Amino acid sequence: MLFQSPDHQTLYTALVERNPAYDGRVYVAVRSTGVFCRLTCPARKPKSENCQFFESVAECIDAGYRPCKRCYPLAPAAETDPSIQKLLSALEQNPAYRWGEDDIIKHGLDPSTVRRLFKRHFGITFLEMARRSRIRDGFETISNGGRMIDAQLDAGFSSPSAFRTAFAKLLGTTPAHFTNDALLRADWIDTPLGAMVAVSDKSALHLLEFADRKALPTELQKLRKLTRNNLGFGRFDPTDQIEAELSAFFQSKKQEFTVPLALHGTPFTRHVWQALREIPVGETRSYSDIARRIGRPTATRAVAQANGANQIAIVIPCHRVIGADGSLTGYGGGLWRKQKLIELEHRVSSELQR
């Protein structure tokens, strides 16, 4: 079943309280102004009788409403904040720069406010994001056969120990523990939603995660333990394949993934992951829906745990699972990414049905 919108009063209460639970899933259209908004819009709240709620931007536009110029419902929430935009633009222009709180102040911004904004939208602070961006440059240098000292300098670190410490924090191990003859190899893939780390062997993809996910170091350690293999830099054919398929996915040219997968989980967990892959593009399910689908209607909590244990993002679409009340619920890659993925797939599905 598709997302079931709550009743009018529940949504109106969410609008008054600026509740972000339905952001990206429900929009309010105001009859008196002809404008549609996010439920978190800072504008003065309209009367209940003037509100009409829709589940997609397309429905709002089809009904004759125009997008609000205060909350920008056509863009993900994180992209509408000028502080975020300002810092992300600066980081993109100079990814190797060593940012500190003084630099944030020089941009006319309050460090504590910026910290809260980035934590809410991305799950990490801006300074952590900048540090990981620098690490990525070092990662690519080593992947291309470069020397450790060159990787350290490319990443903007003044000492080898600082580089090793930062690298270990991101990937759970120091560069010295990556071996050239490893059966598993890790490489970086750029996507419109940020960099991802892909790990594969010669025959299958073992892991695909956003590089800024907090759990990434733990997942890599778990993968090494399960496979009893070291991890190396570089890529095999499955990484090339998933990079091409992700590119087609984000360009709305392809929604199905055919890359072979190595699934590390219990039979129950793999059963849940298969159910996730059976959710049609453009649709969502709740945890209880999945539990019923696999014949375990009382296993909602176990389904949620299996969903969270997924190590192959997007391909195994755990982003299509939402709360029973319609809220986006948690997502390891960040709720803003979950919203983006759902919007992309909903748009593609709507176009295919026309």
From TrEMBL:
Coiled coil: none
Keywords assigned by UniProt, alphabetized: Activator, DNA damage, DNA repair, Methyltransferase, Transferase
Reaction equation(s) it catalyzes: a 4-O-methyl-thymidine in DNA + L-cysteinyl-[protein] = a thymidine in DNA + S-methyl-L-cysteinyl-[protein]; a 6-O-methyl-2'-deoxyguanosine in DNA + L-cysteinyl-[protein] = S-methyl-L-cysteinyl-[protein] + a 2'-deoxyguanosine in DNA
Domain HTH araC/xylS-type residue range list: 108-181
Keyword DNA damage carried by entry: yes
PANTHER family per record: METHYLATED-DNA--PROTEIN-CYSTEINE METHYLTRANSFERASE (PTHR10815)
UniProt-recorded name of the protein: Trifunctional transcriptional activator/DNA repair protein Ada/methylated-DNA--[protein]-cysteine S-methyltransferase
